[in-house]
Amino acid sequence: MRQRTAIVIGGGIGGLTAAVALHRQGWEVTVLERAASLEPVGAGIALAANAQRALDTIGAGDAVRDMAVPQFTGEIRTPRGRRLARTDNAAAVRRFGGPVVVAHRAELIALLAGRLPEGAVRTGAPAEVADPGDPTRPDRPARVRLLPPAETADTANAANTPHLTADLVMAADGIHSATRRALFPGHPEPRYAGFTSWRLVVPALRRPYAAHETWGPGGVWGSVALHDGRVYAYATAAVPPGGRAPDGERSELLRRFGSWHQPIPEILAAADPAAILRNDVRTAARPLPACHRGRVALLGDAVHPMTPNLGQGGCQAVEDAIVLAHRVASDRSLAAALDAYSRERLPRTTEVVRRAERIGRLTTWRSAPAVLLRGAAIACTARFAPDLALRPLDGIADWRPPGGTYASGAPGARPAHPAR
User: Which of 84, 309, 332, 341 sits CB 3.0–4.6 Å from 378 for a disulfide?
Assistant: First the structure.
């Protein structure tokens, strides 16, 4: 039989996971990444138990668990440092069957790319879908147009650029997905969620601190140690979209968070101003009618952008990839597989988007009475429900991949780790 072919547009976490999953099923896979290299912008990513179980199906789950910080604890605090709630990975294991691992994106990208054959990933290769094809007709494959580097799809030269064909195209081209716009013209673009985020990674601190999220008026700061000692930090603030600090983002963070409790001032003192990322947070304005059209499937932020408040953006992209690969392998026809993919993923990801957005709105409260009420509610609830910080992930982090093998059953895999 002819070897089936797939093209992945976008070499991020979701795209690479999908590529690995199909490669393991015998597909010939090509990943087209617009950037000049796969080295992602420096930031961390949270991988809950649902993503780890999904990664178990491609043999990568244990490598991710090895990135977990021993004796991980997490707290919700006030800007003055008062603890409102606390949890740890032992609680996550009890509740969801696995820990929450915070990894550097570069490590995860390298882990996934290393599971693809040499030459499968083409960097500096912007691309667009020229024809989504027809999954019911063997003579109508999907066609992808390669674009000249640093040029856009509407340039005069685009029509003359080379084309590739494939049985399946997986578009993981991010929140500003050109593929989404091409497949669903007129659908509302992701909308501003009401706050902006900053992300940074700094060297190890002088002494260790518990991971924490600190909720203040109109903003949040989070700090968490990575397994190699470096610290990943993130912040959000309710500000108008499109802003930039005239004196640099480190100065902006100092103004907003520099007087908050340690280790926040220490992290800001260690931050490289040039390495601080600022991005407006956007979320899906309305669910798409489907996750696919023709032979093209959308993954991750391309189909369900969400706020970062549940730490599920990357996790849901990984789930998308594994479910799509499972369906393609299980269903008799590609058309049936893609229909099943949309049926399974749309309701789940829509709910995750809504939950994340609800929490995001809470973080934008500014008035002193509202902030005091919010803190009191968190502290009171945590007293009677110690796993408060994990409860929003009920029904999300306990997900298991369809037909998959998990850490406790995959050949050669270690049992799922208990709390460390």
Answer: 84
Res. 196 pLDDT band, cuts 50 70 90: very high
CB atoms within 10 A of CB 376: 11
Q: How far apart are CA 223 and CA 263, in angstroms?
A: 8
Q: CB 112: neighbour CB atoms within 10 A?
A: 28
Other Cβ atoms less than 10 A from the Cβ of 35: the count is 15
Assigned CATH topology for domain 5-70+97-188+284-361: FAD/NAD(P)-binding domain (3.50.50)
Q: Quick one: average pLDDT of 28-44?
A: 88
Which neighbouring-strand residues pair with 164? Answer: 144
Domain boundaries of the chain, sorted by first residue: 5-70+97-188+284-361
Percentage of the chain exceeding pLDDT 90: 82
Would you give the distance in Å from CA 54 to the centre of its chain? 13
Please report how the helices 313-330 and 334-363 are oriented relative to each other, as an axis angle in degrees rounded to 10.
Answer: 170
